[in-house]
Amino acid sequence: MPNFVFSNQLFLLIFFVLFMTINGNAQSISSAAVNSTGNTFNQNDIVFDWSVGELALVETQFSATAIITNGMLQPLVPAHYTADVMVVYPNNILSSNGDGKNDVWVIKEIERYPDNELTVFDRAGRVVYKAKNYQNNWSGDISGLPLSQDTYYYILRLTKDGKSTIKKGFITILN
Q1: How far apart are CA 46 and CA 84, in angstroms?
Q2: pLDDT above 70 covers what percent of the chain?
Q3: 108 lies in some domain
Q4: What percent of the chain has pLDDT above 90?
Q5: Averaged pLDDT, 65-88
Q6: List of residues 6+ apart from 91 with CB closer than 8 A
Q7: Sequence-distant (≥ 6) Cβ neighbours of residue 58 within 8 angstroms
Q8: What three-state secondary structure class fits 142?
Q9: Beta strands 150-160 and 163-173: pairing type?
Q10: Could you list the residue range(s) of the whole structural domain that residue 45 is in?
C-alpha cells in the first residue's frame, strides 16, 4: 500500500508540472547608439591605449525555442603594439623650499633609462644644469646657488638598447 500512495503522489506532481500555465511579462528595448571612452595604461615599457568608441545596442529577441539577450556590437579594430616608445613623466614644478614637496625635480620612470642625458637652459639659452644618468636629485640650483623664480627649458636624451629619443619641455621654479 505505501508504494501505491507514493506512486499516486508522484503521478499528481508530474501531472501538475506538465499542465500548469506559466505567465510572464517581456520588456522591449529600442535600438540605440552608446558612446563610451577608453583609457591608457603603462607598465614595463608597454603602453596600452584603448577606446571603446561608439557601440550599437542589440535588441532582445525571443521565440518559443530561443532567447537572444541584448549586447553590444563594435567593429574589430586591429591592435597596435608600441613597446618601442620611451616614456617618462617629468614634473614641471620645482620649489626647493624644504617643505618636502617638489624640493627636487622628479622625472617619473627615468630609472628605466640609466643611459640618459639632461640639459636645462634658462630663457636666454644658457646651460644652468647638465647631468648624465640623472637620478631625480636636482634642486633647482646652479653651482649650489638657487636659481631665480622663472621658467626653464630642458632637453632629455633617453637611450635604451641602442635606440635614442629626445624629450623637450619646460620646468617652472618657484621660490
Answers
A1: 8
A2: 52
A3: yes
A4: 41
A5: 58
A6: 102, 105, 106, 107, 108, 171
A7: 31, 68, 70, 71, 72, 73
A8: strand
A9: antiparallel
A10: 2-73
- CA 61, CA 118: separation in Å to the nearest integer? 62
**pTM greater than 0.85 (yes/no):** no
CB of 29 closer than 8 Å to CB of 59: yes
Burial 55-72 (b: 16+ CB within 10 A, else e): eeeeeeeeeeeeeeeeee
Query: Residues 156, 117: contact at Cβ < 8 Å?
Result: yes
Phi and psi of 12, rounded to 5°? -65, -40
pLDDT digits (tens, 9 = 90+) for 35-55: 455 666 667 666 666 555 555
Q: Is 64 domain-assigned? A: yes
Q: What is the CATH number of the domain that holds 166?
A: 2.60.40
